[in-house]
Amino acid sequence: QPVLGILGGGQLARMLALAGAPLGVKTLVVDSAGDACAGQVAPLVVADWTDYEALARFASMVDVVTFDFENVPAETAHWLAERVAVSPVPGALAVAQDRLAEKTLFRECGLDTPAFVAVDTREDLGRAIAEVGAPAILKTRRLGYDGKGQFRLKTVGDADAAWAALGAQGAAHGLILEAFVPFERELSVIAVRSREGDFRTWPLTRNWHTDGVLSLSLAPAPDIDELQRRATELARTLAERLDYVGVFALELFVKDGKLLGNEMAPRVHNSGHWTIEGAHTSQFENHVRAVLGMPLGDIGARGLSCMFNWIGELPDPAPVLTTTDAHWHDYGKQARSGRKVGHATVCAPDARVLAERLNHIAHDLGRDGQAQPALQVLG
Ligand code: ATP
Ligand code: MG
Ligand code: MG
Is this complex's ipTM strictly greater than 0.95? Predict the structure, then answer.
């Protein structure tokens, strides 16, 4: 029986373990927190990323190691790769951990990005603002997620406030200043590549963020025309360049009808959760298949899907549980402000039925505002 090892024990590891079970795959998870939510569905090794004794034992018990958490230190990934197969390769992880390396690679692969400049000092920031202009976003190069480690500059006069907020982190890991893009739409492409180089992308997903955190996804994204072909081509170029095996996500802005690369996630992604019920094969199942050397499954969508993220605390599950083809996901985490604690996916054969189901659920939950952007698009 194949054994999948996962570094990080959050909801992504939990959903990977659940997807692996019907394939006969056993999962073993490592996390520094004894209450990591994947531990409710798979055995958990409690260890931190430099506990090499525990990691050696973990490596000896698994066939392949993969990631729930993209910020596992590169040294840990390299150390493991000397002992056991690691997918994606540590080199791909390293690029995705650094916004500067990531955006540089995007441009090399033909994917345009927002204007950006590396910032290490207060003087750099002044020069970067002169070059990029305002509005702009100052971001930590490493370790940011869910909009953390970012400061939005409305005008050039916000430079001191931005430096006060992030300067200390800049000294440690470096910063990047990006032009703020008044995008028309935000999209993501979830892609998978097998060991043999079989490459597939699910239909593009349209995403809406609130305060830097994903709130709502709609898939397949309506009215994307030739963007699907273009996004697939770019994702394939990236995957081949990185010799990538497994699932990854590419976050994109659409500006003046053209794609700009925001960031990539070297793992399964929140905007791909809809694939569990909304596609023939989910991102989680195809990731497990890819890293264990199994053939990939069909990535086609069944109708349309809309996913709500539950942030901070779960709403009443009843409206979702009682709606046809609506699916409840409780990650088993403690409620905490800003934390992703669950999601729900609503599927339907067409836009009209999806709008009906969304309206009904959002109204009963008192979440009309959260569903509004998708309802507007569905017409
Ligand atoms: P994630 O949780 O996706 O890893 P993150 O903390 O890495 O998030 P980003 O993806 O860089 O952060 O930014 C979060 C969101 O903020 C984006 O999805 C987008 O909505 C907005 N954003 C980020 N950068 C820009 C930009 N340059 N212009 C306009 N909006 C932006
Ligand atoms: Mg990110
Ligand atoms: Mg992001």
Answer: yes
